[in-house]
Amino acid sequence: MGQVPGMSRLFPHIEVADLSTDGRGIARLEDGKVVFVKDAIPGDVITLQLLGKRRKVWEGRVETLEQASSQRARPLCQHFGVCGGCRNQHMRYDAQLTHKQKWVADALTRIGKLELPSLQPILAAPEAYGYRNKLEYSFSAKRWLTSEEVSGQAVLDKSPALGFHVPGVFDKVVQIDHCHLQPDPGNAIRNRVHQWARAQGIAYYDNKAHTGLLRNLLIRSAQATSQLMVLPIVAATGPWLDELLALLRTEFPQITSLGYMVNSKLNDSYHDLEPVFVYGQPYIEEHLGPWRFQVGPKSFFQTNTRQAKQLYQQVYDLLPAELPLLYDLYCGTGSIGIYVSGKARRIVGVEYVEAAVADARVNAGLNHLRHLDFVAGDMAKVLNPDFVRMHGRPDAVITDPPRAGMDAAVVQALLQLAPQTVVYVSCNPATQARDLALMADAYTVDHVQPVDMFPQTPHVENIVRLQLR
Fold first, then answer.
1. Domains of the chain by range and CATH?
2. Is 86 a catalytic residue?
3. How many CB atoms lie within 10 A of CB 259?
4. What's the predicted TM-score (pTM) here?
5. What distance in Å separates the CA atoms of residue 423 and residue 393, rounded to the nearest whole number?
6. What are the φ and ψ backbone dihedral angles of 79, each rounded to 5 degrees?
7. CB–CB of 361/368 below 8 Å?
């Protein structure tokens, strides 16, 4: 980080004016410098410590909170400010929603330079905490030591940790005692595994030395059915693993799907690993409205089940009725296509990940839907004239791309297909705005609906409907 030579690094009586899209406060110094300040929110008056410049952006921290903003709330989590997962916990939930609505409007008008109808009020989540149906914890031989611990006089406890990686630090983990994002009994399971593993002396993984046995702990739950999946991810097996699995089955009868994965690679990804189940089915079942979904350990499924239903219902309501043919692009495991299946006589879903397409076909069969077809392939290459000749030209399209947005070739393919209606679901309004700008000559935006899928975080989902001019 660049230094600030020849100037005071402390600036008193600075009022925080805005909030960045990554959840930091934005303040302006008298000389015009715009500073991004961790853990500050609009309305705070602070003594700001200027830290320096990183990636062309000035960064600072709160040296003293002189006057707290009316938007402030008391963080619920004891780990707030360290683990980095819920960086907006210090804001009232209604204030979070206000800023997310503003971010969507700013992105579409400033980046996309779009003419917009009035934005619909952002859809608040039913629960501000306890909403995640999936969490993945990391074991680490190196526990993250807080600044208070390091500066204190006590002997430092360097015991291993089971929790979340510190943002930007790959080899150290914050020990989590209670995470407020997951429903019970997730915390009890994680803490019991940690207690047992330490008592037994089972080595936690070291991401630098690549030694140790315990790597990750995956917990998935189903809101509608209360089914629960637990999978330790380990570097190697042994009698100790059988003991751990037996302990979990005995002490947590709520577990309906129990297994493990072996990861001997140098990275923590598990999309290419084969799960081994020792108890129950290799999936849990979730319901969204009348629709059933089998969710495996590697399945993509919206992590906020109740809010996903609201999101999908919005998509359903924005589609015309009695569509002859609907394309569902970036369809994942087919959840949106299945939810809106009553709107179209035929639906064709396209997804890059073959395993997700396999899940989509299973879920369509589970719901006895024979008018859905799913295709695996690179979206930019699949949407060609041969594909259209085989499947037909769509009357409407749903597109739900990853954070990077749509590939430019996909945007051009959409423009050539010229469906009457496009419903664009995005987890990144900035890239959504970029894509919409490329479509602005052919389409007009007639509906914008922000949705808060992840309370306590800066992330916001947005739905836009486009109509052919």
1. 10-67 (2.40.50.140), 95-127+299-468 (3.40.50.150), 134-288 (2.40.50.1070)
2. no
3. 18
4. 0.93
5. 16
6. -95, 5
7. no
